[in-house]
Structure formats: C-alpha cells, structure tokens
Amino acid sequence: MYVSIVMTGLKLNSFNPMWNQANRTMISTSMGSVSVVTKNTRKGHFWAYDETNVFYGPFNNYTSMKDDCMTYSEYGTTNDHLIKC
After folding, report:
1. Radius of gyration of the chain (CA)
2. How far apart are CA 76 and CA 10, in angstroms?
3. Deepest of 9, 39, 63, 74, by most Cβ within 10 A of its Cβ?
4. Full-prediction pTM beyond 0.85?
5. pLDDT tens digit sequence for 25-83
6. In angstroms, rounded to a whole number, what is the distance separating the alpha carbons of residues 85 and 82?
C-alpha cells in the first residue's frame, strides 16, 4: 500500500464559527489521489472529502483521524473483517 500526504492550511471562519481551522490535504493511494479537508474542533478531529459536506469523526487525535482517512480512501471501508490484505 502506497500512501503520501500533502497538507495546505486555510481558514474557514465564515463556514462555521465552531471550526477553528481547516486543512486541505491531498492523499495519494495506490488507487489514485484524493483531496480531503481536515478540521480540528473542541469536540475532536474531523475529515471529509473535498467535494462533499459529510464529515467523519470525531477522533481523539490527529493520528487516528489520519489513519481512518487513509484506510477509507484506500479500501472504501474501515472494517477490518472486510479488508482482505
């Protein structure tokens, strides 16, 4: 499995006052490149695909959010029983 991450920061204060910062991240997997938005709030970390408004989370830390985002982008699920490596 090949995964690389490129992050660029952007402020989305007008989007929702609860979001303090959003980062646009490009994830390159063996299936292709995917652009995602990651956000950090007081409730936890969230991620979403760039072209959708559905956010996944909350996650306790950035590492678990990043792992979930990469696994879902690579396999289409985060269920270990459905992922056959």
Report:
1. 13
2. 27
3. 39
4. no
5. 888 888 788 899 999 888 999 999 988 888 999 999 988 998 899 888 888 888 888 88
6. 10
